[in-house]
Amino acid sequence: MTNPRSPRNTFVSSLFVLTTFFTTTEAFAQPARPAPAPAPAAAKTAEPAAAAPIAIVGGHVHTGTGEVLDDATILVEKGLIQKIGKGLAVPTGVATIDAKGAIVTPGFVDALTSIGLVEVSLEDSTRDDDRGGKDPVRAAFRAADGYNPASTLIGITRAEGVTSAAVVPFGGLFSGQSAWADLDGDSRESTLAPGPLALHVHLDGSLNGDRGGPASALLLAREVLDDARTFQKNRAAWERNQSRAFSASRLDLEAMGDALAGRVPVVFHVDRAADILAAVALAKEFGLRPVIAGGAEAWKIAPRLAESKIPVIVNPLEPGPTSFDTLGMRDDNAALLHAAGVPVVITTADTHNARKLRQVAGNAVRAGLPHAAAIAAITSAPAAALGLGAKYGTLAPGKVANLVVWSGDPLEIASRPLAVVIRGKKVDLANRQSALFTRYRKLPIAR
Amino acid sequence: MFSRRAFRLLSPLLLALPACASSTSAPPSSPAKAEAPPPDVPFPWEARPSTAAGTETPAAASPPVLIRNATLWLATGKTISRGSILLRDGKIAAVAEGDIPPPEGARVLDAAGKFVTPGIIDTHSHLGVYPMPGTVAHLDGNEASSPVTPDVQTVDGFWPQDPAIERAVAGGVTTLQILPGSANLVGGRAVTLKLRPALSPRQMHFPGAPDGLKMACGENPKRTYGVERHSMPGTRMGNLAMQRKAFLDAKKHEEDWQRHRITEANRLRDDQKKRAAYEAQLESRNKQQAQCKDDPYFSSCAEWQKDWDKPLEPPRPSDPGAAPARDPAKETLIGAMRGSVLVHVHCYRADDMLAMLALADEVGFRVRSFHHALEAYKIRDVLAKKGVSVSTWADWWGFKMEAYDGIPENIALLQESGALPIVHTDSPEGIQRMNQEASKALASGRRAGMPLTDEEAIRWLTYNPAWALGIEQRVGTLEVGKDADVVLWDRHPFSVYASAEEVFIDGAPVYQKGKKRPPWSDFELGQDTGRPTTLLPGGAP
Fold it and tell me: Topology of domain A10-46+108-393, per CATH?
């Protein structure tokens, strides 16, 4: 759709507005973020099409809960993990993946991407991450409706062990609803988790050009949420045209029902400590389940976030005081939050390079986050924060079989995935980039 | 050694483009050559004082530093697995296997298990011209008011209080090139800096480093002007046409000056001839008069005397011809054509790079480095043969059409083919962990089956960028006599968990991990900014 004028990275967004921003430095032309809203309706769980059973044998298994099993075997069938433990017998005829001497983890999850919504950032014709238009209230906009399961980004991303992504819409104040995508599959139905994942609210950007920060955002957010609550309580009156005028459209007011009922979390994109607290207060006022995304200054108020167990999605590679809202950004934000007891989720906040999620998590470790917490921050923590902890994020019976067999420490740059399993199926690690490499491996090329 | 080299590059310009003022006051009696060209001609920039007094890192005041028991990555292709390096008087004074006896007063660092590399060099940075925090007021990197602006220079836009500078140092970066952005076909002059706290980029200038010239291919200029303003260039055709014209105009400017120089030389020679004739005449008359005074009855005196009545006037010096106007834009392009200004071209696609190389051959300049160059792997044979370096990322791709074919093996393939790959950042984030970027490129190559070595990969961060910036005689390797710009790493530098423990510039420590210190930037004083820290023990396994 239109350009991602979204916030998140305020540095980027503020520059965006300026003249030749794109042309300025390629850094600024780096992608925009994403955010998603899941799949439409269909209360059915997205059970993978019956994939043949497989067994992952002999790995050093990090279950994602902090537990590590040596020389363990994982039995997978019907897309789910059936059994996990030492010395499990592998039924005859079941294909095996030899993981001896290797490390096995749950598939990694990037909680803030636009994978499947953006193919080429600067080509609007390839973007579906922003509803566009002047109205900042876009709660009904669903990332799931634009998700392209054939995007080249999918194969490129999973080759680095990222098996799922929250696909997030951007733009406006209520940007829309995100979706959870497993990075394999040929249709939206076979690749997206059913239902909206989260509602995304941007308090970190300006609503109208260069004016209007969190104060105007909070004002409008409160008005819209209040209207939505009223609408939800007495829908019948609205249908009879006996309601007061509302500040948002019917679809938007309707779309906020899940969030107001606490069925889906509300992801507040916000960085400044005072604004994070305002978001938390707003969530309390309306009974929302808040998740903080960005959270550059979250470490300053870590005890208060820990008290309410409010998850924070951080990018440990944020480079410093890139805006006046992120002056307090520091590289050990994740470590400090974790130490205070806040559930920490790590993201690349990137789309084309969501594949570098493990490098990003490694940097959080470099800055003091315990290694196990870093693994959790890209597996179980995002699943739990986004309400899918029952199905995703750990290696346990009944969970969706998304897992990766690694040649070594998954956070270390020199390591690589030896096998990637998504929804119970070992996936091909080839992609468009590997095809280009193969073609140009020898010059002159033959074609 | 280096400054002599720089002078050699500079001197042809001085000879070719005399100052417009040089001829007006030449006394007729002295030949033109006696007048040395003023030092600010034709490029005032190249007379830039490298480091103002009192602002250089106090290398001389720093005690010698001896780092022992370290793994030394020399970046010459060699590694010393247990060795010592001595930094003294701003230079690398010794590099050896085993031990070196500590000189008197030396600070001795035991670096068992640690690594030493040359300081990292980024050929592509916009720190200071697109500083943190991002504000409208501080966007000083693109003179996007006209597509050809060779006369602007980043040294005039750089904000030395950018908080990103200190953060880059914490990542082991000691030198960078500040480029104008890529909105313009010819964006202006780039300056190479050493990272030290300063009040002006002029105090950070890498001594003797030549300036760069930033050019751009492809989408950015045509988007900035064609799409956004409906003015030229609106296509790749327009890009090349305007670049060609800019260089041809500069050549014309050079020819005008050459013609002027010859005309002036001829005029002065004629003046000199007339003056010589006059002086000969005068001398002859003086001789006659002297002789006739001695011997009034000398036979020729009567004849001579007739002439003596005619006044003998000295010839009037002729009026100097009007010099062509000085034009810093064209002079910069002339510098590029002569090689005194190194050409750096933002260019992604293989065909765009080949088009630029054809233009370079046509009008007469050499590309020192292609930047971004995501499709360099497709033409790596050409780039290797032509000796063009490639400054690029480890894994960026897809943010625009010309970046769609980026692959993570780009750098590895360039290395394998004998081209000169360089890890650059173009990013205030990437610049904080360039070691990891090199590591990713290395890992991608190895994964694809290329037997690359750490010794090759460290050069992507050190020697190769030093070459691209024309400072390889001064930095880029750990060799005796080079500047003591050195990084001590707490572990293998290609580990994701590695941090620079201490960074030296000119032998003085500019960053020490975990050491509390006031921020370099005034901007960060008195407000609660998050600075590079290590409050908690690392969690690395």
Answer: TIM Barrel (3.20.20)
Count of A-B CB contacts under 8 Å:
241
**In the prediction, which pLDDT does B526 show?**
86
Fold of the B120-238+329-474 domain: TIM Barrel (3.20.20)
Average pLDDT (B438-454) is 98
Report the pLDDT averaged over residues A385-410: 97
- Residue B516: is it exposed, middle or buried by C-beta count within 10 angstroms (0-12/13-18/19+)? exposed
Q: How confident is the model at residue B516 (pLDDT cuts 50, 70, 90)?
A: confident
**CATH number listed for the domain at residues B56-119+476-541:** 2.30.40.10
Other Cβ atoms closer than 10 A to B497: 22
Residue A396's closest CA among A73, A173, A84? A84
Domain regions of chain A by residue span: 10-46+108-393
Report how far Cα B171 is from the mean position of its chain's Cα atoms. 22
Tokens 């010819």, located at residue? B186
What is the distance in angstroms between the CA of the first residue and the CA of the last residue of chain B? 46
Neighbours of B535 (CB within 10 A): 12
Chain B contact set for A407 (CB, 8 A) = none
How many CB atoms neighbour CB A135 within 10 A?
A: 13
Query: Which two three-digit tokens encode residue A270?
Result: 């916000």
**For A16-69, how does the pLDDT look when each residue is reduced to its tens digit (9 = 90+)?**
333 333 344 554 444 444 444 444 444 444 444 567 999 999 999 999 887 899
Q: Which pLDDT score is estimated for B312?
A: 87
Residue B421 is classified by DSSP as: E
Find out whether B388 and B361 touch, Cβ atoms under 8 Å. Answer: no
B140: three-class secondary structure by DSSP: coil
Inter-chain touch A300–B528, beta carbons under 8 Å:
yes
Q: How far is CA A426 from CA A21, A258, A259, B93, in A?
A: 42, 34, 35, 56
Determine the 3-state secondary structure of A413 from DSSP: coil
Is the preceding omega at residue A444 within 30 degrees of 0, hence cis? yes
Interface of A with B in 361-380 (CB under 8 A): 362-363, 365-371, 373-374
Task: Return the HEC string of A202-240.
Answer: ECCCCCECCECCHHHHHHHHHHHHHHHHHHHHCHHHHHC
* Average pLDDT over chain A, rounded to an integer: 89
Tokens describing residue A348: 């690349």
- Predicted TM-score of the model (pTM): 0.89
ipTM metric? 0.90
pLDDT at B12 over 80: no
Q: Averaged over B13-22, what is the pLDDT?
A: 32
Count Cβ atoms below 10 Å from residue B50 Cβ, excluding itself: 15
What was the pLDDT predicted at B474? Answer: 97
Test mutation, B159, B378, B496, B529, chain A, max A CBs within 10 A: B496
